[in-house]
Amino acid sequence: VCTCCLDVFEGALGASNRADLVAKAKDWSGRQDVDAIGDIVLPHFHAKSYKFHTAGREDVDVRMLGNGRPFILELIGGRAPVARALRKVNETNADRVEIRGFQLTDKKRFSVLQAGADSKRKTYCCVVWVAEKLTPDRVATLNSISDLAVAQKTPVRVLHRRTLLTRPKVIHSANVTVLNDHYMLLRLTTSAGTYVKEFVHGDLGRTLPNVSTLLGCDADILQLDVEDLVE
């Protein structure tokens, strides 16, 4: 059996509108975007099957923007023109999934892919609600964040499938755009593996410090996008 590995980059992975986000959120296996690529590529390469490997992952209701997330599509058996498969995936999934940098690679890239998932910083854009008025002092508190050490216990929402641990993470920077007295766009740059939703609302005190404790009032996250992966 011949194994053909393709080093590709996915961009705007997930939903382009709110309706698609709702539909995607119902598929907790995360198979929708995998199938949107693998099932289309497979016949072009006359392969028997495929395996999909990514550099990390996001929740199903989080959009992947910017330059996208690196992944490797491993095809078992068969080859065909790469350009044709790339074009077909992008045409079939217009405004939903886009891949770029589609090229042949080798198995050495698997370790590089995993290393990137563990070491890259991420930039996020969050729509955040706060219970009390966003005063200049509160905005300044968030904007002053620089390499803030955060302790995150395994979130309640994933405790059924993740080991109970306290993970040290870092919020490298934050920037606030005030929308009105109670809503803001919060852009964060974090260390790999940070639970951003929990950093905002605190997860019943399981993530400390968090936006809620920093501002001295309740906070919650309404929408979350990954804007970029930073070397």
From TrEMBL:
The keyword DNA repair does not apply. Its EC number is 5.4.99.25. Pfam families: Pus10_C. It comes from the Eukaryota. One of its GO terms (biological process) is tRNA pseudouridine synthesis. GO terms for molecular function: RNA binding; tRNA pseudouridine(55) synthase activity. It is an enzyme of class 5 (isomerase). Keywords: Isomerase, tRNA processing. Residues 35-228 form the Pus10-like C-terminal domain. InterPro entries: PsdUridine_synth_cat_dom_sf, Pus10-like, Pus10-like_C. Belongs to the pseudouridine synthase Pus10 family. This is tRNA pseudouridine(55) synthase.
